[in-house]
Amino acid sequence: MSTYPNGRFVWFDLMTSDVPAAQAFYTSVVGWSARDAGMPGDYYTLLSAASTDVGGIMPIREHLAAAGAKPTWMMYIGVDDVDAFAARVKDAGGVIHRAPEDIPGVGRFAVVADPHGATFVLFWGNGEPREATPATPGHVGWHELLTEDLDAAWAFYSNLFGWTKAQTVDMGPMGLYQTFVVNGPQGGGMMNKPPNLPVSFWGLYFTVEGSVTAAVERAKEAGGQLLQGPHEVPGGAWIAHCLDPQGATFNLTSATQ
């Protein structure tokens, strides 16, 4: 049995209404390569950065589409006991959207949400967890929570996963931005969401090679939209907020404009 360090971001995937179109879009914009996962009875596309599998794409299930589910990126947080952590999420006021179950030959997972509705996946894998390489193109360079209550959200996640506070940035009228540290070089931030956003959610920043502006242009040429940016953030990175052709939000980051 592998030992997963609790609280480390270990995987991400996209649920979308058009897998082939999404695959073509993101391989062009981010530079991933893609291949079928070969899972019997399931349709799952693996995304790779160089020779490392980093994420995947799958279709929105019919019952979820019927319930109004839209294309969205999901992040997986590693734990050593999915069932125990799912129970802790519920006890802390969160919700279990999909009860713990096995992925044959891969691991065990549960889809949950924090008390303010931001969804994420608890995951334990059969193999060793991937090493975090946030500055490497094709990997997730940052994880960001927009929430209804920053203080309550921090209490929930820090108690659940043991995350520790790093820098607190005063964003003026937008409030405080709390950065945090996970095991190793991983990190992220959280802040109160703007009033125009209807729900709390986790956002992912994909590191791209070279200029973030060039990546934005690739996104627009492939049918995506630029929502905001590019702009520089504390620490010197450049970011841009985007929308893919199927309607999923995503973010790009690079060391250069």
Automatic annotation (TrEMBL):
<dbReference type="InterPro" id="IPR029068">
    <property type="entry name" value="Glyas_Bleomycin-R_OHBP_Dase"/>
</dbReference>
<keyword id="KW-0560">Oxidoreductase</keyword>
<dbReference type="GO" id="GO:0051213">
    <property type="term" value="F:dioxygenase activity"/>
</dbReference>
<feature type="domain" description="VOC">
    <location>
        <begin position="136"/>
        <end position="255"/>
    </location>
</feature>
<protein>
    <submittedName>
        <fullName>Glyoxalase/bleomycin resistance protein/dioxygenase</fullName>
    </submittedName>
</protein>
<dbReference type="Pfam" id="PF00903">
    <property type="entry name" value="Glyoxalase"/>
</dbReference>
<feature type="domain" description="VOC">
    <location>
        <begin position="8"/>
        <end position="125"/>
    </location>
</feature>
<dbReference type="InterPro" id="IPR004360">
    <property type="entry name" value="Glyas_Fos-R_dOase_dom"/>
</dbReference>
<dbReference type="InterPro" id="IPR052164">
    <property type="entry name" value="Anthracycline_SecMetBiosynth"/>
</dbReference>
<keyword id="KW-0223">Dioxygenase</keyword>
<dbReference type="InterPro" id="IPR037523">
    <property type="entry name" value="VOC_core"/>
</dbReference>
<keyword id="KW-0614">Plasmid</keyword>
